[in-house]
Design brief:
By secondary structure, this protein is an alpha/beta fold. It has three domains: 5-175, P-loop containing nucleotide triphosphate hydrolases (Rossmann fold, 3-Layer(aba) Sandwich), CATH 3.40.50.300; 188-256, Helicase, Ruva Protein, domain 3; 273-336, Arc Repressor Mutant, subunit A, CATH 1.10.10. Helices cover 50% and strands 8% of the residues. It has 15 helices and seven strands. The strands form two sheets. Strands 2-3-6-1-7 form a five-stranded parallel sheet, with helices on both faces. Strands 4-5 form a two-stranded antiparallel sheet. The protein binds adenosine-5'-triphosphate and magnesium ion. The site of magnesium ion has 4 residues, from helix 2.
């Protein structure tokens, strides 16, 4: 696949691309932050690819995947007999990544004891294998990533402050996909091509589905979008995934507008079918209006034409649907006049 960052064309990703280009050539530690699935690993790999270490190993260790002892051995290796089951000597990732790059994924989950050992490596560039005496020197460029609030972890004494400052020389925050929606069509196209090639298909994603995908808030970010496209290709049609996404958008609308979902928790509560229908229609309208407004950069006259309603009706609906716009007050005035 492409190196990933080529696809991050949005203005929101511009600072990320610039930082990657700036830090790649240096040896500094970089802390990559962002929600799950935003592309922290893709950014880490891009840094490695642009660095002088490109012809050496890029290795990754997931600090959340292994319990403390095994993680220590994974990182630093062990000597024969270091613990039950250590039948032979094994070098760790710090040795294997010598002169290359090591990504410590989910660094926020690293146990305190190992944090101390890691800090020592960062300060002195040396360590010893588990159960070993010999000091081993290392030249590894360290990258770390997390979706955890490290500052809160520090306050809760779960993350060492000194390690935090060592790792956080440069911080790159990767924004969630919902803040860079303009990348969605390009990403959809990229994954569609990839999975079509992989499964020998020629599935297309129609424009109305692309619009629905652009409206969705993607809590699982690019990974969720990638999986959605995989389902589209495997199922041979965008329709089922499109419908799922629309249902999710509507559910999110229920939550954010504070309206109870139709199946309330109280079994005695009256359920008005009319109200449910009205709410569903309002939700569908809200999604459609927002999509058109975003498409025409909030040019309301243009949006009204596309939606085939009057300008004044559109302004009214913008307020009624609670759509966010910086000049909502002005709209209210216009309607009142
Ligand atoms: N810009 C991109 N172009 C193409 N694919 C991308 C891009 N960003 C992310 N992806 C894909 O999305 C998925 C998630 O990316 P990645 O593993 O880098 O996210 P992450 O932030 O490390 O997630 P987690 O916190 O869950 O580990 C991967 O399959 C990756 O290939
Ligand atoms: Mg990751």
């Amino acid at each position: 696949m492409t190196d990933g960052l080529n696809l991050c064309s949005s203005s929101k990703m511009q600072p990320v691309r610039e930082l990657v280009a700036k830090v790649a050539a240096t040896n500094t530690t970089v802390l990559l932050r962002g929600e799950s699935g935003v592309g922290k690993e893709i950014v880490a790999r891009a840094i490695h690819k642009l660095s002088p270490r490109v012809n050496r190993q890029f290795l990754k260790v997931n600090c959340a995947a292994l319990p403390g002892e095994l993680l220590e051995s994974e990182l630093f290796g062990h000597e024969k007999g270091a613990f039950t089951g250590a039948y032979r000597q094994k070098p760790g990732k710090f040795e294997a990544a010598h002169q290359g790059t090591l990504l410590l994924d989910e660094i926020g989950e690293m146990p305190m004891r190992l944090q101390a050992k890691l800090l020592h490596v960062l300060q002195d560039g040396e360590f010893s294998r588990v159960g070993g005496e010999r000091i081993i020197g290392t030249d590894v460029r360290l990258l770390a990533s997390t979706n955890r609030d490290l500052e809160a972890a520090m306050r809760a004494h779960q993350f060492r402050e000194d390690l935090y400052y060592r790792l956080n020389v440069i911080e790159i925050r990767i924004p969630p996909l919902r803040e860079r929606r303009e990348e969605i069509p390009v990403l959809l196209d990229h994954f569609k091509r990839r999975f079509n090639a992989q499964y020998g298909r020629a599935v297309e994603i129609p424009p109305d589905s692309i619009r629905a995908f652009m409206e969705y808030h993607w809590p699982g970010n690019i990974r969720e979008l990638e999986n959605a496209v995989k389902r589209v290709v495997v199922l041979g049609s965008a329709r089922p995934v499109h419908q799922e996404i629309v249902a999710n958008v509507q559910r999110a609308g229920y939550r954010s507008s504070g309206t109870a979902a139709p199946s309330g928790a109280n079994p005695d509560q009256a359920i008005s079918l009319k109200e449910i229908a009205r709410q569903a229609a309002r939700d569908a309208e809200r999604v459609a209006i927002k999509e058109v407004l975003d498409r025409v950069h909030w040019n309301r006259a243009k949006a009204a034409r596309l939606l085939q309603i009057s300008y004044k009706a559109l302004l009214y609906k913008i307020v009624q649907c609670g759509l966010v716009s910086h000049d909502t007050e002005k709209e209210k005035e216009t309607i009142a006049s």
